[in-house]
Specification:
With 448 residues, the chain is of the alpha/beta class. It is built from 15 helices and 19 strands. Strands 1, 2, 3, 4, 11, 12, 13, 15, 16, 17, 18 and 19 form a twelve-stranded mixed beta sheet that branches.
C-alpha cells in the first residue's frame, strides 16, 4: 500500500431528522448489522478493499477501555460489539491473511465481562465463514482486581512487546527532570516512572502486534475525556501500549508546585496526593486501602471544586496530550527494533463509532450522546478536529488537537459528508452541544 500524502475524512449520517437522532432510535442501528456493513463499506471502500488487504495481516484496534458498569455503557462506553463485527466482516471480505483484534483496557477491567462468549462466538462464525484466522487479544501486562485488591503482573510476557525510547524527541521532554519524578498515573506505583520517563529518557511498551501488521485500522468510540477534553482516533492508539507504568497521565502537585494535577498549590491537596502515592506503592497489600481512605479524607477537607481532581481531570492537564502525541509518533514511524524512522512506516486508518458517542464524565463514565454518525479517515488529526466540531467543542482549547493540527497544517485535507464534498465549517450544521466533563465546564474561558 503506497503512502498517503493527503488527508481524507468521510462521514455518513445515520439519522434522517431530529426525531431519529435520539438515543433510542440510534441504538437500534447497532442491531442492524447489514446497515452497519453497508455504511462502513461505503465510506472506506477506496482504502479497505481487496487490492489493499488481500493476503495482508490486519490489526483492528477498538476502544475497549473497560467493562460496563451501567446499562448505557454498552452503547456509549466502548466501540460497540456489533460495530466491531461489522467492521470485521468488511475486512474479511477483502481476503486478508489474518486479523488481530486487540486493546489494552485499564488494569481494573474484567475482560470476560467486556469480551463476552456470545461476541467471541460471532467472531468465530465469521472466521469460519471466510476461512480466515481471527484472533482476539488482551494487550495488557498488568491487571488489577480493586475489590480483591489483587494485582497480576506479567499478565503477558515482556517479549511480546518492543520498548521504545523517544529520548529528547518526546513531547514530554520539555516538562521532564533528571532527578525529580513528577509523572503519575492512577493506581500505579509512581516510582516505576523513574525507569521509564525522565529528562532524556522516554520509554513506551508497545505490543508487537503493531509491527507485525501490514494494515492498522483503529476503531475509536467518540467521547469526551476528563483529562484530554475528548477522545477519538488520536487517543485510541494509546491502547497499543501494554503497560501503563510507561504512560504519564499527569504531574503531581498543583500548578504552583510545578505540577498539573489541579490549579493552585493547596497544601491539603498535596498531602492527599502524597498519601495516594503511598497507597499505590502498596497496591495489592492490605495497607493499600488504609492509605487510600486517608488520602480521600484529606482531599475532601481541602474543599475541592470541579477543577480539582486527584487524577488531573481538568482543562489544565498539560501531560496527557504529550503522551498521546508520543504514541502516535511511534504508531506511524516506529520500527520493531525500537527506532523511530525518518519515513512513515505504516498507514493507520480510523473508522469511528460515533453512532452513539459519549459525553459528560468520559472516558470511563460517559452518558449517551446521539451523534448519529460513522467516519473513516486517513488522518487522525483531521478526524478528531472534525469530531470535536460535531460535538460543539472548540478544538483550539484542547492541547492535543491543537498540537496535532499544527503538525498537519500543510497536508491537503478533504471532507465528505454523506458523499458530498464540504468545507469544514459546514459540519456545524449538524453539530450538537456535548456535555463536557466536570473539570472542563469552563474550558472556553481558559487563557493559554
Amino acid at each position: 500500500m503506497s503512502k498517503i500524502t493527503d488527508s481524507t475524512l468521510k462521514i455518513n449520517t445515520l439519522f434522517y431528522n431530529e426525531k431519529s437522532r435520539s438515543v433510542p432510535e440510534l441504538s437500534k442501528i447497532y442491531e442492524n448489522r447489514d446497515l452497519l456493513i453497508k455504511n462502513i463499506h461505503e465510506i472506506s471502500k477506496d482504502w479497505i478493499n481487496e487490492n489493499n488487504l488481500i493476503s495482508k495481516r490486519v490489526l483492528l484496534k477498538p476502544n475497549w477501555v473497560r467493562h460496563s458498569s451501567k446499562p448505557t455503557h454498552d452503547i456509549c462506553l466502548r466501540t460497540n460489539d456489533n460495530f466491531v463485527l461489522a467492521a470485521l466482516e468488511v475486512v474479511l471480505k477483502c481476503k486478508p491473511k489474518e486479523v488481530i483484534i486487540g486493546d489494552a483496557p485499564i488494569q481494573g477491567c474484567i475482560w470476560d465481562k467486556m469480551i463476552t462468549s456470545s461476541f467471541l462466538d460471532e467472531i468465530g462464525k465469521l472466521s469460519v465463514k471466510y476461512k480466515i484466522p481471527v484472533i482476539v487479544k488482551d494487550f495488557r501486562r498488568v491487571t488489577f482486581d480493586p475489590k480483591l485488591n489483587k494485582i497480576h503482573k506479567d499478565f503477558t510476557p515482556i517479549n511480546n512487546y518492543t520498548l521504545f525510547d523517544l529520548g529528547v524527541k518526546s513531547y514530554l521532554e520539555p516538562i521532564s527532570f533528571k532527578n525529580k519524578n513528577l509523572f503519575r498515573v492512577t493506581q500505579y506505583n509512581p516510582d516505576r516512572f523513574k525507569e521509564s520517563h525522565r529528562a532524556g529518557l522516554h520509554k513506551y511498551c508497545i505490543t508487537n502486534e503493531l509491527f507485525d501488521a501490514d494494515v492498522v485500522i483503529s476503531l475509536p468510540k467518540i467521547k469526551t475525556h476528563q483529562k484530554a477534553g475528548m477522545t477519538g482516533a488520536l487517543k485510541n492508539l494509546v491502547g497499543l501500549n501494554g503497560d501503563k507504568d510507561y504512560l504519564p497521565h499527569h504531574r503531581i502537585g498543583g500548578t504552583n508546585r510545578g505540577g498539573d494535577c489541579y490549579p493552585g498549590g493547596n497544601l491539603l491537596r498535596y498531602w492527599a496526593e502524597m498519601l495516594q502515592d503511598t497507597a499505590n506503592r502498596n497496591i495489592g497489600k492490605t495497607i493499600y486501602r488504609y492509605w487510600l481512605r486517608l488520602s480521600a479524607v484529606l482531599w475532601r477537607l481541602s474543599l475541592p471544586k470541579k477543577v480539582h481532581h486527584l487524577g488531573a481531570a481538568w482543562y489544565g492537564n498539560d501531560t496527557i496530550w504529550r503522551m498521546v502525541m508520543d504514541l502516535n509518533k511511534i504508531a506511524f514511524y516506529g520500527k520493531k527494533n525500537g527506532e523511530i524512522a525518518v519515513e512513515q512506516q505504516r498507514i493507520v486508518f480510523s473508522l469511528c463509532d460515533g453512532i452513539i458517542g459519549g459525553q459528560g464524565d468520559g472516558p470511563l463514565n460517559p452518558e449517551p450522546l446521539p451523534l448519529g454518525i460513522i467516519s473513516f479517515s486517513t488522518n487522525s488529526a483531521l478526524n478528531d478536529i472534525s469530531m470535536a466540531a460535531l460535538m460543539g467543542i472548540d478544538y483550539r482549547k484542547l492541547p492535543l488537537l491543537l498540537a496535532a493540527q499544527i503538525i498537519n497544517q500543510d497536508i491537503l485535507s478533504t471532507i465528505y459528508l454523506d458523499g458530498k464534498l464540504i468545507a469544514p465549517y459546514e459540519l456545524t450544521k449538524i453539530a450538537l452541544s456535548a456535555k463536557m466533563p466536570p473539570g472542563w465546564i469552563d474550558y472556553h474561558n481558559h487563557k493559554d
